[in-house]
Specification:
Blueprint: E1 5-9, H1 14-22, E2 29-34, E3 45-46, H2 52-59, E4 64-67, H3 77-98, E5 102-108, H4 136-155, E6 158-164, H5 176-179, H6 183-195, E7 201-206, H7 218-221, H8 235-242, H9 250-253
Parallel strand pairs: 1-2, 1-4, 2-3, 4-5, 5-6, 6-7
Helix pairs in contact: 1-6, 2-3, 3-4
The structure holds 1,4-dihydronicotinamide adenine dinucleotide and D-galactaro-1,5-lactone.
1,4-dihydronicotinamide adenine dinucleotide (NAI) is lined by residues 10, 12-16, 34-36, 48-49, 68-72, 83, 87, 106, 108, 164, 166-168.
Protein name: NAD(P)-dependent oxidoreductase
Domain NAD-dependent epimerase/dehydratase: 6-166
Keywords: NAD, Oxidoreductase
């Protein structure tokens, strides 16, 4: 049966806030968790991912988990270790103990951020491109993908790991024209990841069907995902303001953009 009750971790964050609006119309009942309280959501669970008792309680009775919580930018290794590496382990352990069968894990393009972006007629970046993390943050996402593989092989917990590009209401940089995932397409992809059968442990790239796409969306489409958006209507204005991506500029050379050279730092 399709999952109905779904734990959404990171529910107070940017994507979490978008998905709290966009997922219920698909028929999901969301249970919300974040370290920060969520205004207008008195039933949300306010807990840190290091709180194993709270996680145990949070996963009880859910059909699936969408795991978005964590540090979403670069940070000192010790912080990444606690929130993203140990935190994701704690989520998988809680799922194993409670018998939850499916997790959708928010991985990131930064797990492969040092991959050169395609130029001209270069082929799209395939799913099996070697991982090339661009930050401790990207390294934690690579760990999450391996953790997912281990929990599938060892414990039969299914995961769809989504290497998300940039999921924001609108693309705001020229790089994002290639990796933008509109919120509506994000919800479509999460729905596909929750409902596709026999996914085992699958990794997909997460974006809209952008004209300037850098990566292969076929594994996402194989889940039943049919993206409807394209960043192209934003292209003329962004390129007029910022210029084209120049191959000689290190911030333009790799998939991960400025994360490779001067990553944005987690503020807390
Ligand atoms: P965000 O930073 O806006 O939200 C993350 C949420 O996780 C925050 O509300 C924060 O309070 C919570 N959180 C952080 N550490 C926690 C902890 N130890 N315990 C409990 N909660 C904790 O990030 P955003 O943009 O919403 O991204 C969601 C997820 O998707 C993240 O895992 C991020 O790495 C991933 N992702 C997002 C992309 C995007 O374009 N938005 C791109 C690629 C990956
Ligand atoms: C990410 O992984 C970040 O969480 C998000 O804030 C964006 O910076 C995105 O990647 C990106 O590469 O644009």
């Amino acid at each position: 049966p399709a999952p109905r009750t779904v734990l959404l971790t990171g529910a107070a964050g940017g994507m979490g806030t978008l998905m709290r609006e966009l997922l219920p119309p698909y028929g999901y009942q969301l249970r919300l968790l974040d370290q920060l309280p969520i205004e207008g959501e008195p039933d949300a669970i306010t807990a840190d991912l290091s709180d194993r008792d709270a996680l145990r309680e949070a996963v009880r009775g859910v059909d699936a988990i969408i795991h978005l919580a964590g540090i979403s930018l670069e940070a000192p290794f010790e912080k990444i270790l606690r929130a993203n590496i140990e935190g994701t382990y704690n989520v998988y352990e809680a799922a194993r103990e409670a018998g939850v069968r499916r997790i959708v894990f928010a991985s990131s393009n930064h797990a492969v951020g040092f991959t050169p972006r395609p130029v001209g007629d270069d082929p799209l970046i395939p799913l099996d491109t070697p991982r090339r993390p661009d930050t401790y943050y990207g390294l934690s996402k690579a760990f999450g993908e391996d953790l997912a593989s281990f929990y599938w092989d060892k414990h039969g917990i299914e995961t769809v790991a989504i290497r998300i590009g940039s999921c924001f209401p609108e693309p705001t940089t020229v790089r994002m024209l290639s990796i933008w995932m509109s919120p509506a397409d994000g919800a479509r992809l999460l729905h596909a990841a929750l409902t596709a059968e026999n996914v085992g442990c699958t990794t997909v790239y997460g974006s809209s069907a952008n004209t300037r796409l850098w990566w292969d969306l076929s594994s996402a489409r194989a889940l039943g995902y049919e993206p409807r958006d394209d960043s192209e209507p934003y292209a003329a204005k962004l390129i007029a303001e910022q210029g084209e991506l120049e191959p000689g500029n290190p911030d333009h050379e790799y998939l991960g953009g400025a994360f490779c050279t001067n990553p944005p730092i987690w503020p807390r």
